[in-house]
Prior knowledge:
This protein is mainly beta and 315 residues long. The protein contains six helices and 21 strands. The protein folds into two domains: 212 residues, Jelly Rolls (Sandwich); 86 residues, Jelly Rolls (Sandwich).
Amino acid sequence: xxxxxxxxxxxxxxxxxxxxxxxxxxxxxxxxxxxxxxxxxxxxxxxxxxxxxxxxxxxxxxxxxxxxxxxxxxxxxxxxxxxxxxxxxxxxxxxxxxxxxxxxxxxxxxxxxxxxxxxxxxxxxxxxxxxxxxxxxxxxxxxxxxxxxxxxxxxxxxxxxxxxxxxxxxxxxxxxxxxxxxxxxxxxxxxxxxxxxxxxxxxxxxxxxxxxxxxxxxxxxxxxxxxxxxxxxxxxxxxxxxxxxxxxxxxxxxxxxxxxxxxxxxxxxxxxxxxxxxxxxxxxxxxxxxxxxxxxxxxxxxxxxxxxxxxxxxx
Length: 315
């Protein structure tokens, strides 16, 4: 095959969603409460579909099950990663995710959820909730039971270009006015700790998962240290944000022409800004803001040309 797999995303409506996915990426969104673009996904709750080449019309999950050679024969029973773009038009619930062991036991064999965020854009003065102040489980439970959220939750400022690594067990929430690219394990398990007592259109509050949250939260909070590493070569500046157990994530700032050797079983790529061309085995593919693609195992070398920013990840 020797060609990239371009993908049609799936959109998810959320109580906190907005229109930024249409306004910034020109996506055809289902409503003005669209919170998530599942851009590269093999998860059963929203699968991306291939739009080009011999596998057009196939989902990532189907390719993972039927053509594992495209992914270097990777041993995971499911496609292991999920790339999303999140439009936090309002505050997300304060939440925490389980690790693999807990999820396997309590969530029907689902993967745990370690994730990371690249801040694409945000309002002036935007912030997020990242971690908590409790030193012990008793203190954590007491602050939840007494509704002492302002004392319990750590808030930190964010700006475009920031990157955050969010291991399972981390209390977190994106806050209003942030647009984020998320790379995560392929999991849809979220435990809500607090949802600001807000109600949906029918007047109902959303379900909370206090007991499970207490069981999986890391106490005391541990900051995941991110030390970006920048390498410059002709035509591209590559920033490695994280190299961790479940994924490695990079930003490619392309300005001109650059060639690459694929040294991973497969790579996931999302164009966040600009435009250009991807060349594989003499074939040219145009790239523009909002495009998402996979470079499968049989793409051994490739070239990019243009002026664009991409977020790239691999297992």
